[in-house]
Amino acid sequence: MPVTLPPDREREWPSVDRETAVSLLEPTPPEALRVDPVSQAVNNPTNDGPGLLTPIDE
Asked: How big, in percent rounded to 5, are the helix, strand and coil portions of the chain?
């Protein structure tokens, strides 16, 4: 399960100790996530750009 940093706590993140930083993380609610198939080009680290996020038809 991915974790996210709540927007209202973002400013704290860079300046806190490790224990506090970990306590700021929250499980991401499933309804906040979206899964789309994308090109296998995302697997190559030399590829970069917004087109990598374009959903493809399966």
From this structure: 40, 5, 50
